[in-house]
Write a structure and sequence with these properties.
The structure is a single chain. The protein has 414 residues and is mainly α. It has helices spanning 2-9, 13-32, 36-42, 47-75, 77-97, 101-130, 134-159, 164-185, 199-207, 210-226, 232-239, 244-272, 275-288, 291-295, 308-336, 341-370, 378-399. α5 (77-97) runs antiparallel to α6 (101-130), α7 packs across α15 (308-336) and α13 runs antiparallel to α17 (378-399). The longest helix has 30 residues, at 101-130.
């Protein structure tokens, strides 16, 4: 943690605020969302209604990322970050104050729209404020991100003793405080003076940027793989007889690895590899993470050792993500150049959201198929192949120097 604190202090106040802001965002989000479905079920809502509410929240966020990014480019990052935090304050308060379906739908849509506003803007602002130190800034950013994920459910569990409304209002209060802090402390970067091209023209530029589109397509698999922490691995734990406590322990282990290793790992990779090399090798590690599950799928493990392949998979999956993430974020900002960073982040998030959806459907089908005799290793082998194919695609782009945008540094030796 000393290395993380030292790196954190080396940045200016705007970067520090954005990193702390992300910890607060995840703290507020994860103290509420893990318990929302259970609360709605306890309030007597049908399962399909609960699915509709949760689905609308995700759809409104993923579907509006591109618009949120464009607004950040045109109106400035600070207003979008503040607007997103303010909207999430309203959305979370609505979740706590009503169980009527229309208000729950409104809360879900507002909460999702909030994320679409502040996510691309916060990343674009961090990239701008960090300058040439984008990878290092995103490494610290990810530490605070993981810290919020770790602390959020624990805080929510403690507050549940006072009722779900208390949890919602506490989460809303966190976002209200974040809104005020952004307004007081975050500098307002001026957008480019003079008339801008139409929004559709800027979107066309992003969609027709072949290198960026190829990079986005290559990275889709990484998000489908990382999301297996919430789908395939919990199902595997359940098949082995583990309960919610075992799954929570897996998440905690992943978050603790991110908190303790991210900054030093990024520094190590920066000293040895180019950005493209770090991303491709991180993706390869994410693919290899599923090999232990494939290798032991048909082997009778000794008593007490059954969870070991799942734990190893989770650790390797997290480690690969830690290697790739800071360089991935820095690469997007550099490929966008000046004036369209928010738009590029928005389009990238939109593509990866679609990848998560498709990956979940495919992974779920594979897990079901894997229950048949002789096919237990199939899901894990195909996930491994997806990771290695993604790594090869990014490596190909890197060798062709397609990942070097306007602000990218000169590659280091391999």
């Amino acid at each position: 943690m000393r290395a993380t604190l030292r790196e954190f202090r080396s940045f200016g106040r705007p970067v520090q605020l954005l990193q702390l802001n992300q910890a607060g965002i995840n703290l507020g989000f994860y103290m509420l969302m893990p318990y929302l479905a259970q609360h709605l079920a306890g309030a007597g809502l049908a399962a399909w209604t609960i699915g509709l509410v949760l689905g609308l929240r995700n759809a409104s966020q993923q579907g509006m990322f591109l618009i949120g990014g464009s607004l950040a480019d045109r109106l400035g990052c600070k207003p979008m970050i503040m607007a997103g935090c303010a909207l999430r304050t309203i959305g979370f308060a609505l979740f706590g104050l009503s169980t009527t379906v229309p208000l729950l739908i409104a809360a879900a849509v507002v909460t999702g729209l909030a994320g679409a506003l502040f996510n691309p803007a916060a990343r674009a602002c961090l990239a701008a404020e960090a300058g040439e130190r984008k990878a290092e800034a995103f490494a610290v950013f990810n530490v605070f991100y993981q810290g919020g994920i770790l602390a959020g459910p624990l805080a929510g569990l403690a507050l549940l003793r006072g009722g779900f409304t208390v949890v919602c209002l506490a989460a809303a209060a966190i976002f209200a405080v974040l809104t005020v802090l952004q307004g007081l402390c975050l500098p307002a970067r001026r957008v480019a003076a003079g008339p801008r091209p139409p929004v559709l023209s800027e979107w066309r530029q992003a969609f027709t940027d072949r290198a960026f589109v190829a990079f986005s397509a290559a990275m889709i698999a990484s998000y489908a793989l990382s999301f297996q922490m919430y789908l395939a691995l919990p199902l595997q734990v359940q098949r082995q007889g583990g309960g919610p406590t075992a799954v929570a322990a897996l998440y905690a282990l992943s978050a603790l690895l991110g908190i303790t290793a991210q900054v030093r790992l990024t520094a190590w990779c920066t000293a040895r590899w180019s950005r493209g090399q770090a991303i491709s090798r991180g993706l390869a590690l994410m693919g290899v993470a599923f090999v232990p599950l494939a290798a032991t799928a048909h082997l009778p493990l000794p008593a007490g050792w059954a969870p070991a392949p799942v734990v190893v998979c989770a650790l390797l999956l997290t480690l690969g993500s830690l290697v790739a993430f800071p360089f991935e974020m820095a690469t997007i900002a550099d490929m966008a150049g000046q004036g369209l960073v928010g738009t590029y982040y928005g389009l990238y998030n939109l593509a990866c959201g679609a990848g998560i959806l498709a990956g979940n459907l495919l992974a779920g089908a594979l897990v079901d198929a894997g229950r048949a005799d002789g096919l237990a290793a199939l899901p894990w082998l195909l996930l491994t192949a997806a990771g290695l194919a993604s790594a090869a695609a990014v490596s190909h782009l890197d060798r062709g120097e397609h990942l070097r945008g306007q602000g990218a540094p000169t590659p280091r030796g391999s």
